[in-house]
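**Backbone shape codes:**
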Amino acid sequence: MEPAVTLDSNSNKSPLAQRFRGFLPVIVDVETGGFNADGDALLEIAAVTLDMNDDGLLVRDQTFDFHIEPFEGANIEQSALDFTGIDLEDPERDAVPEDFALAELFREIRRTVKHHGCTRAVMVAHNAHFDLGFVNAAANRCDIKRNPFHPFSCFDTATLSGLAFGQTVLAKTCQAAGIDFSNSQAHTAAYDAEKTADLFCLIVNRWQALGGWPPPLD
């Protein structure tokens, strides 16, 4: 059997930076006023950063989340509010403007990318192109030039879950994976992002345990 590749201990990149060819996976979840990223409101956003422990396993690190004021002229479908349970009139919602939320969130992500010696962030999400589309559309609306996320590449845990567990719905996948999941807490950005992060870490770590990482030499 050929020996496995070992990470370069002399590299100035952290082990986490070496795992995903310089990308830092950041788990994101958004709650929205519909399915149209260009016209429907972004109502909540959460991001979870990851770290790598001494055993080379991914672990959840910090969570950042914001409730967001709908941008001027945004469409909000009542069916979306019914699904998420978001009450836009709740005085304790503590919503902030979209540009403030993204600026703060992106600043924290860029700081974490630099901390790990990565080149940029790559979004991890459940049905990831939906979340990436809303984040990119909001960044464009706010004229934010320093979006830390790769503009089109992303890691989709729905696809990974279909491979690993034969499920694609987040709640059912967590059940199959042995991850506690509360339907009453679901559909808040912070809760769903943290559960998606736990799921992503579990799949990546299990792949490593099966010998899939580091890859064998040719």
Q: What stands out?
A: The two ends are 11 Å apart (CA to CA). The first helix runs from residue 15 to 19.
